[in-house]
Design goal:
CATH architecture of one domain: 3-Layer(aba) Sandwich
Order of helices and strands: EHEHEHEHHEHEEHEEEHEEHEHHHH
CATH topology of one domain: Rossmann fold
Number of helices: 13
CATH class of one domain: Alpha Beta
Bound molecules: nicotinamide-adenine-dinucleotide, thymidine-5'-diphosphate
Strand order of the largest sheet: 3-2-1-4-5-6-11
Largest sheet: 7 strands, parallel
Strand content: 15-25%
Shape: globular
Number of strands: 13
Structural class: alpha/beta
CATH superfamily of one domain: NAD(P)-binding Rossmann-like Domain
Length: 348
């Protein structure tokens, strides 16, 4: 796997994965990053990587729904493996605008699979990055395993579920070598502040309300993004082809606890306001169809591939808050929309 096509590499997890490959993994190949540069993309997240590893890194601003341009890229570039992150990823947006999710997540994945298949053996591996949300919602007990039936509840999770099925079908029907991972909620550096953790950190810093949906007792199983990247790379190198691996942090938390921890950390690290920031917590109308609890059983990847997370939720959250505090330029660029101006100037 010398030449890797990474899709969605300007997004949160994709950019962390590319950084991980160049700075931590034993990877000495090249990365082609295909990204449509939607609102969720920020090429500046990889500016330092581009500076240092520019000879082995290239960004192609391309929509994976554009099959012709994608086919042209595959024809002109040696691609040994695909790691597919590109997707519309935010549940709230999928409720408001499902169309983009159906297009990017289903049709885009299908296009990539079809072109990979047509390379007739050149693509040694297609790794599909997916979510635990395909399994639906848990009650108080139990965990998602690789055997849990799919029961997606939002347009986002339904579109990811559809893409998972198509990937699996390409393995069964055409023998395309694939692996799939279904991961729990990620957090860490470079996450766009529409998701819970970065939104709360930035709002807490700015003294704005911290909007908690419903009763705040929905549970997510949090994983530090670097741990997710390490798991994906391990699956790509050693995972059995045709298999699915669940990835999770064994870090179940109620949303309200997460938000209280963030408020406390920002008080501690950014200096206190006249009032503790937990007083900014505001309960707001619940998300329609809000899944109650996610929790991953990651026994398979732990026992088969020897992966386990390195960060606890407390250590990962502290690192994350520190990162947002010490990367004001990135935060301001995203908050003001300057990053989109930058994209327009550089990529039209
Ligand atoms: P993100 O929204 O931060 O980034 C998505 C990236 O994909 C962006 O750079 C965007 O420009 C790009 N993209 C979107 N549509 C595209 C298209 N049509 N063509 C090319 N590029 C396109 O998302 P993320 O949080 O980094 O998630 C990455 C992947 O991981 C997604 O597939 C998501 O379903 C999955 N995942 C995310 C989480 C999480 O907690 N964030 C957890 C498990 C799985
Ligand atoms: P989110 O980060 O959007 O991830 P997902 O919906 O994929 O799990 O949300 C995480 C949890 O936080 C989810 O239960 C919804 C909740 N939430 C809030 O309470 N307030 C917010 O402003 C956001 C964005 C999310």
């Amino acid at each position: 796997m010398k030449n890797l096509l990474v899709t969605g590499g300007c997004g949160f997890i994709g950019s962390n994965f590319i950084r991980y490959l160049f700075t931590e993994a034993e990877f000495n190949g090249a990365v082609v990053n295909v990204d449509k540069l939607t609102y969720a993309a920020n090429p500046q997240s990889l500016a330092d990587i581009e500076r240092v590893f520019g000879a082995r890194y290239r960004l192609y601003p391309l929509d994976i729904c554009d099959r012709d341009k994608l086919a042209q890229l595959f024809a002109e570039t040696q691609i040994d493996a695909v790691c597919h992150f590109a997707a519309e990823s935010h549940v709230d947006r999928s409720i408001a605008w499902p169309d983009d999710f159906i297009q990017a997540n289903i049709i885009g994945t299908y296009n990539l699979l079809e072109i990979s298949r047509q390379t007739k053996g050149q693509v040694e591996l297609f790794h599909h990055v997916s979510t635990d949300e395909v399994f639906g919602s848990l009650g108080r007990e139990g965990y998602f395993t690789e055997e849990t039936p799919y029961r997606p509840n939002s347009p986002y999770s339904a579109s990811k579920a559809a893409s998972d099925h198509i990937v699996r079908a390409y393995f069964k029907t055409y023998g395309l070598p694939v692996t799939i991972s279904n991961c729990s909620n990620n957090y860490g550096p470079y996450q766009f502040p529409e998701k819970l953790i970065p939104l709360m950190i930035i709002n807490a810093l700015e003294g704005k309300p911290l909007p908690v949906y419903g009763d705040g007792k929905n549970v997510r199983d949090w994983l530090y993004v670097r741990d997710h990247c390490a798991a994906i790379w391990r699956i790509m190198r050693n995972g059995r082809r045709g298999e699915t691996y669940n990835i999770g942090g064994r870090s179940e938390m109620e949303n309200i606890t997460v938000v209280e921890m963030i408020a406390g950390l920002v008080d501690e690290l950014a200096g206190s306001r006249s009032k503790p920031r937990r007083e900014l917590i505001t309960y707001v109308t619940d998300r329609p169809g809000h899944d109650r609890r996610y929790a991953i059983d990651s026994t398979k990847i732990e026992t088969e591939l020897g992966w386990k997370p390195e960060e606890s939720f407390a250590s990962g959250l502290q690192k994350t808050v520190e990162w947002y505090l010490s990367n004001a330029a990135w935060v301001n660029s995203v908050r003001t929309g300057e990053y989109q101006e930058w994209i327009r100037r550089h990529y039209g």
